[in-house]
Amino acid sequence: MKNREFMEYLERKELEKGVEALEKKALEDKLMEMPELEDADPEKVNKYTRASKYDGKAIYCPKCNTLNRVYHFTWSAITCGGCKGMVDKTDWNLTK
């Protein structure tokens, strides 16, 4: 009976390792898909910035660099989904 329990334990551990590996791979793939911010003077949102009706526009928080997607710019400040801070429209960074 002890060998059977031990074998079941090993199988569970192998499954957990497999799930962790899949989660790590998915996270790496997601990070590879994200556009990178350039360190040198990122483009800011201004009064001429427009967003696509269907695809929206990807913008980055200047405080935490979290990617946020907006579908219009009829706001003066918006809460960041990452740091939960209120950020003025003209402070947000655009993707290139």
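Above is the first protein from milestone M3; the second protein from the same milestone is given next.
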Amino acid sequence: MCGYDVIFFFSLSEQLWPLLRERAFGDMDGKTIAEFRRRAADAGFANAWDYTPDGGETIQDLRVRAGEFFRVRERCTEQYRVINASFSALRQVL
């Protein structure tokens, strides 16, 4: 099934693609956005989203993963109805 057994079927049971997951923030996972921004500023980053915490996923890693999702999704939409939704992060990296 398009390489993944995780799509929306007509029964509307939701299943998630492993390619569509939250950005990994490493040692900042579970922290508030204010804490993230403070840590980024302390590390010398003017733009917090350019900062990658220890053990975290870089924006480039996220771009690669998102690109793979869209390639897989394109193959799947020929056979299945696929619905995807995201907050702003996915839009920002593309």
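Note on the second protein: Helices lie at 33-42, 59-76, 88-93.
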